[in-house]
């Protein structure tokens, strides 16, 4: 089993920045993808950004140019730098790791609240 622990959420004013981090522990071999999803109240969980073990990234259109995902394969961590935050970025953010291209693991979620 793999465990994912997120940190870095909180309350920020619109236009501000936050950095989320996620550390994987336990059975951590062959993690192909790591990423961040979010779920706002009344909405479905959506992919925000993800990164392969080789460093290829993709982002949901709404965060392109504002968010940057990075990964440290040696430390089994993934981070999400969020700049120019908007009210609509308010959500619970979940770290995700996909192992062997088969198994998905999730963190417990961290709240990000953007206020005006």
Helices and strands in order:
Blueprint: E1 2-7, E2 10-13, E3 18-26, E4 31-39, E5 46-52, E6 57-59, E7 67-72, E8 77-82, E9 91-99, E10 103-106, E11 110-115
Parallel strand pairs: 2-11
Antiparallel strand pairs: 1-3, 3-8, 4-5, 4-9, 5-6, 7-8, 9-10, 9-11
Quick overview:
It is built from no helices and eleven strands. It has strands at residues 2-7, 10-13, 18-26, 31-39, 46-52, 57-59, 67-72, 77-82, 91-99, 103-106, 110-115.
Question: Would you write up a description of this structure?
Answer:
The structure is a single chain. The protein is mainly beta and about 120 residues long. The chain is built from no helices and eleven strands. The mean pLDDT is about 95.
Task: Give the key terms.
globular, 116 residues, 4-stranded antiparallel β-sheet, 11 strands, mainly beta, 7-stranded mixed β-sheet
How many angstroms separate the termini? Answer: 40 Å
**Major sheet:** 7 strands, mixed
Which residue ranges are poorly predicted, with pLDDT under 50 across at least 5 consecutive positions?
none
Rg: 13 Å
Strand content: over 45%
Summarize model confidence as the mean pLDDT: 96
Give the overall form: globular
Q: Percent helix among the residues?
A: under 10%
What's the β-strand tally? 11
Number of helices: 0
